[in-house]
Amino acid sequence: MGKAKRSYTADHGVRSLNPSSPSPARRAALAVDALRHGWPLRFLNEGGEAITLLPVETAIATDATSGNMLISAARAATLKLANQIEAAVPHAPVLIRGGDPFSLSEALPIADPALDLRHPFKGPFRAEALDWADTAQAALELARIAGILPAFLVDPDQGGEAQELLAGDVEARADTGLLKIASRARLPVHATEEAELVAFRSTEDMREHVALVIGRNEGSGTPLVRLHSECLTGDVLGSLKCDCGPQLDAALHAMAEEAKKGGWGVLLYMRQEGRGIGLINKMRAYSLQDQGFDTVEANQRLGLPDEARDFPVAARMLGLLGVDTIRLMTNNPAKVDALENAGVSVAERVQHQLPDNPFNARYLATKRDKSGHLLK
User: Which end of the chain, N or C, is less surrounded by CB atoms within 10 Å?
Assistant: First the structure.
């Protein structure tokens, strides 16, 4: 099995970032913006060689073609690969080649499993050696951050002008030290009138997280804390497919009761829809669930992780509020571990289970059986 051959652009991609180039954090932000707009990314390495990747879902260069596609191993596992063992690690990047070059119209059904029923006959494909794994992994992570399908045409012909960056630039987005309190104000809510909303902002991230502080921090007592990830369908629209809305409401009322007894609570409302995969990809996962896949299988079929939430940001928010020890409302031991790894001391895990319904019973069972949630 030989290494994949790449078709280079006119300048052969042999360029390096000049000294006046934007900072790594800015390049990463520009890369996310480029993917949302459908523009290609050109990853440069220290040797001067470049790899150009065109996002399959959003690409505006409609005439682009390529001999190779980059997808995740989880998605590759659902395709007809001649050498399936090459795609054995679920979230690793996989380079594939078909019998003919990929056009965008041919690449989209490969990228989007929601189209499998309409396009059942694909392949055969072959996984090829990938000698730029760090670059490929960075590209898949940027696609997740952008909320698009993790699939690219590799060094495409007629791909258009590319945004340049380095593979390591994506790590700049993980600097939680840039997160600051931007504003705060009193906010009476249905559960209690004694609440304050605190808004957070980072210069490197467009997401604006908030914390609702219920009761008063008098410097004593460990607060009751709920880390709640944004769920438009559950929190706002009253979806019955999950338990997010009821959990949010119950957490606020539990904190209000805590405040009546002289304690206090903090609800962290994190802007990380779909456990970090974004609203559109969550809708795709819902479509796959309608076909019979469970919540974990649906994410994997999309080539996305079933858990991609940003726990260090939650830890930073708590730190800015002066909180280092908490009583955490969760059924998920992994959330306890993640926060403790980020520097938060969890003095107690407080069970937060609510009754199921006919629409979310399987979802909750999957969380118990596959994701380790402590549900009865």
Answer: C
